[in-house]
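Teaching note: in complex prediction, the entire set of molecules is handled at once rather than each chain in isolation. The prompt given to students was simply: 'Predict the structure of this complex.' The entities are:
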Amino acid sequence: DTEVTQTPKHLVMGMTNKKSLKCEQHMGHRAMYWYKQKAKKPPELMFVYSYEKLSINESVPSRFSPECPNSSLLNLHLHALQPEDSALYLCASSLSSGRGLSSPLHFGNGTRLTVT
Amino acid sequence: DQQVKQNSPSLSVQEGRISILNCDYTNSMFDYFLWYKKYPAEGPTFLISISSIKDKNEDGRFTVFLNKSAKHLSLHIVPSQPGDSAVYFCAARTIPYGGATNKLIFGTGTLLAVQP
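The expected output is the structure of the full assembly:
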C-alpha cells in the first residue's frame, strides 16, 4: 500500500468543468510534488511545495492551480482544461526538497484524468 | 532536450538470470540518482539510489553502479524474478541555478519482462 493517497482514482471532466485532485501523506514529509505522466512517457514535474510554500512552477498553464493547505495535504485545482491535458497526475512527497539531503520521492497511485 | 535517457525501451530476461538496465545522462550537475519501478495503474515505487560521490550501492537483489566519467548508471537485478516485470525509470536530481529546491528528472523508462 502506498503511503501517499490520491483521490479520485479516475476523473472524467468536460472542458468547462471545475474539479480538484487531492493528495494526502502522513509521513511527516515537508516537500510535496505534482507530476504529470502521458502514456509511454516519463513523469514530468509540474509543481513543488516546500514547507507549504510553492517553490517550483514548471511554467504550467494557469488552468492548473496548486494549493497546499497544510503540510499533509496537496490539491490541484483544474479549470477549463483541454483534451490534451488528459494524463495520469501523480502526487509525491519527500522528507525535504533541499540541497544536500538525499531524500527519495514517494509517489501515490495517481489520478487518471480524461478531459472530454 | 532529454537530459536522462534510457535507450532500451524493453528488455526480456529469463527467471534466475541477471537483468541489467542502463541509463545515460548529460547534465554533470546531477548529484543524486534513483531507480523507480512502476506497475500499470500504480505510481512509481522507489527502489534504490546512489549519491554522485559513490560508484556502487547495493540493496538485496538490487545494485546500482555509477560511472561519472561516462555519465552512465546501471541497475543490476540478480536473480531476476517474474514479479520484477514492470517499467523501470531512472531519475536524476538537480538543483536549478539560484534555487534551493531540487528537481527530479526522469528517464524514458525500460519495460522489463522476466520470463518464468
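Point out the following to students. Residues 5 and 104 of chain A are 17 Å apart (CA to CA). The longest strand of chain A covers residues 18-25.
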